[in-house]
Design brief:
Helix 2 packs antiparallel against helix 3. The C terminus is likely disordered. The chain is of the alpha+beta class and about 400 residues long. Strands 1, 15, 16, 17, 20 and 21 form a six-stranded mixed β-sheet that branches. A six-stranded antiparallel β-barrel has the order 2-9-13-12-11-14. The protein has a four-stranded antiparallel β-sheet with strand order 6-5-3-8, with no helix packed on it. It is built from four helices and 22 strands. The protein is elongated and about 145 Å long. The chain has three domains: about 200 residues, Elongation Factor Tu (Ef-tu), domain 3 (Beta Barrel), CATH 2.40.30.170; about 40 residues, no CATH class; about 70 residues, Helix hairpin bin (Helix Hairpins), CATH 1.10.287.470. The two termini are about 90 Å apart. Helices cover about 25% and strands about 35% of the residues.
């Protein structure tokens, strides 16, 4: 083989090698993005009871301060401190001797006035016959009539004195004005009490039923009234609103109360109004002054949207957010406003609309802008359409 022929073969092999290398360096076609499968629920509106959690304190239904109504020495106490007493039950006995004497004196005065009236009536009858026969002057007859009228007035005054003396004597029996639980005795036998100073002797409180005075901010009260007026909340009125209590030890109070009224004035110092509820207290569990937390049923929100909690996260600002699948099967993010929870679901008031598909399973596999394949989610406690199978409603601040 000649040298020229060898050069041609070498050049041909080198060119072929370059073509092969060039072919190997061309990029491969990009693989299509993987479409992940996510579980979604379809948003729809539901009727959800609306509650407010309010702090409050218990107060006795009736409070009676037993005070002295006459002056005198306390002879004895006739009750056990802390016991239950009945209305009209005698609690103390004040020395009645001065008032018995006053009553006897009043009765004597009345008897004297009544005797005088009898004499004056007889005098008038005699003078009437005499004046008709012109045996006495008309002046004498008029004087007899005046004396008769004075005797009538004396009898009336005597009766009033007797009645007053009897009342004062009855006040020596200090009785309970109401039925309830009696507190500490402020006086002991031998103590001197005065009507003019209204000496406090003891206090009786009716504890069944009990008042619970709750504190609600004026802003929350205004929002409640606005929601009712604009139709977002339905209510049957304050008289039908139910209230439940959580006691200081965290236990639920077994009795259910009713809202009685809401104060019409705002405390300028705290910006709050007082809401009063009344509760049965047959077992005496509630005592005056206890701190409680109440859940007040304010109405019904017929446009609430329930979203499982697993489908709601929070952004860096703390706002609740959810991933929504649009009509093009692409994911976008929505900022929500919530008003509490019901069971395992958030109660969403804005940020969604009925028919939206919310991702509740597979949220870690996707991000806004990605395309996904949707299937109905299967969650414990709720169905694929977001309807709860059970649970309770609790309020929480709107995000």
């Amino acid at each position: 083989m000649s040298r020229a022929h060898v050069k041609m073969v070498f050049r041909g092999g080198f060119v072929a090698s370059l073509i092969v290398l060039a072919g190997c360096s061309q990029p491969e076609a990009a693989a299509p993005p993987k479409v992940f499968e996510v579980g979604v629920i379809t948003v729809k509106t539901s009727s959800v009871p609306v509650f407010s959690n309010l702090p409050g304190r218990t107060n006795a239904y009736l409070v009676s301060q037993v005070r002295a109504r006459v002056d005198g020495i306390v002879l004895r106490r006739e009750f056990t401190e802390g016991a239950n007493v009945k209305a009209g039950q005698r609690l103390y006995k004040i020395d009645p001797a001065p008032y018995v004497a006053a009553l006897n004196s009043a009765k004597a005065t009345l008897a004297r006035a009544q005797a005088s009236l009898v004499a004056e009536n007889a005098q008038v009858q005699r003078y009437k016959v005499l004046v008709e026969g012109n045996a006495i002057s008309r002046q004498n007859y008029d004087n007899a009539l005046a004396a008769q009228g004075q005797a009538v007035a004396d009898v009336a005054a005597g009766k009033a004195m007797v009645e007053r003396a009897e009342i004062n004597l009855s006040y020596t029996d200090v009785v309970s004005p109401i039925s309830g639980r009696i507190g500490l005795s402020e006086v002991t036998p031998g103590a001197y009490v005065q009507a003019t100073g209204a000496t406090l002797m003891t206090t009786v409180q009716q504890l069944d039923p009990m008042y619970v005075d709750l504190t609600q901010s004026s802003a929350d009260g205004l929002k409640l009234r606005t929601d009712i007026q604009e139709g977002r909340l339905q209510t049957q009125g304050n008289d039908a609103a139910k209230v439940t209590l959580t006691l200081e030890n965290g236990r639920q109070y077994e009795q259910v109360g009713k809202l009685q009224f809401s104060d019409v004035s705002v405390n300028q110092g705290t910006g709050s109004v007082t809401v009063r509820a009344v509760f049965p207290n047959p077992n005496g569990t509630l005592l005056p002054g206890m701190f409680v937390r109440a859940r007040l049923e304010e109405g019904t929100n017929n446009g609430a949207m329930l979203i499982p909690q697993v489908g709601v996260t929070h952004d860096q600002s703390g706002r609740p957010i959810a991933l929504i699948v649009g009509s093009d099967d692409k994911v976008f993010q929505a900022v929500l406003t919530t008003s509490g929870t019901r069971g395992t679901d958030w109660i969403v008031t804005s940020g969604l609309k009925p028919g939206d598909r919310v991702i509740v399973q597979g949220t870690d596999k996707t991000r806004p802008g990605a395309k996904v394949k949707t299937v109905p989610a299967q969650l414990n406690g709720s169905t694929a359409d977001g309807t709860p199978q059970g649970g309770d409603t609790r309020t929480s601040p709107s995000a």
